[in-house]
Write a structure and sequence with these properties.
This is DoxX family membrane protein. It contains six helices and no strands. The chain has one domain.
């Protein structure tokens, strides 16, 4: 039986886990004005989020990012599970980038100056997909 964490997964799990954990912890005590701005951007891309009050949305996002970051950092969490969660989370971020006006150059996937902060999250999607595919195709499963 394989251990839940392969040596080749350590560096990307540490990098993504620390990045996401820090992001989640920084949102823990978000002021109402910042929460409203974050919520407004998210609801533009995902209208169903409009049902949540901004402070609740920020609190839930903080908890989700904190849990995902911890899952990536904890070696007892299998990489396939952590990778699937990272893929789902980062797909949402890429969707936010694609659906938010002004983030991309007209008729292109290339980011505008304002969109670079969101466009860079595609690396999280790549890491998550890499974990899932590596675990799904590994011969020593």
């Amino acid at each position: 039986m394989r251990p839940p964490l392969q040596l080749r997964h350590v560096a990307p799990r540490l990098a993504t886990g620390a990045f996401i954990l820090n992001s989640g912890l920084s949102k823990r005590r978000m002021d109402p004005e910042s929460a409203a701005g974050l919520h407004g951007m998210a609801t533009h891309a995902y209208p169903f989020l409009d049902k949540l009050p901004p402070t609740t949305f920020a609190r839930l996002l903080s908890a989700g990012e904190t849990a995902l970051g911890a899952a990536l950092l904890l070696p007892v969490v299998p990489t396939a599970l952590a990778g699937a969660a990272l893929t789902a989370f980062s797909a949402g971020l890429v969707g936010l980038y694609l659906r938010t006006p002004g983030m991309r150059e007209e008729g292109s996937l290339r980011p505008t100056q304002e969109g670079t902060a969101l466009a860079k999250d595609v690396w999280l999607l790549g890491v998550g997909l890499g974990f899932v595919l590596d675990e799904a195709t590994s011969r020593d499963r």
